[in-house]
# Entry
Amino acid sequence: MTKGTNTNLIAGLIGLALSAGFWFSLEEISRMSIIFPKAMIIIMAFISVCQIISGFISPERVRLFGEGDHLRAFVTGITLFAWVIAVSWVGFYVSSVIAFSFLVYYLALARRSVTLAQLASWVVIIAVEVGVFYLIFSRLLYVPLPKGWLI
# Structure
């Protein structure tokens, strides 16, 4: 019998390490622009600490990668990694619409066939959502988003 892994403890430690990395990599930008990233980092650190505490109080042992489709998880991870790299080259808006449209299509194929009309409607919805997020971050929260050679 194999023992599972305390996933709350591992997720909490990784989240706390990422929070520290993000906190120390913050650049000085305008006062209004820095408020939102700092708030998100503080919230992420708080949730991570709660997960660590939960990992000690009621440890839940789960076998890592015991469930789900590993190929889909790998392709999703590679797509998100490529999106992070493409954001600075292509731009936030275009790379986000392309990456998330591909992910929606790829993940939908697991359960059903996808027609061209469905894919087109999903791309429009994703384009509108990414556009709304772009406007919120760039116009309201003053968070500068990477522009690349496109938007």
In short: Strands lie at 5-6, 61-62. Residues 31 and 68 are 43 Å apart (CA to CA).
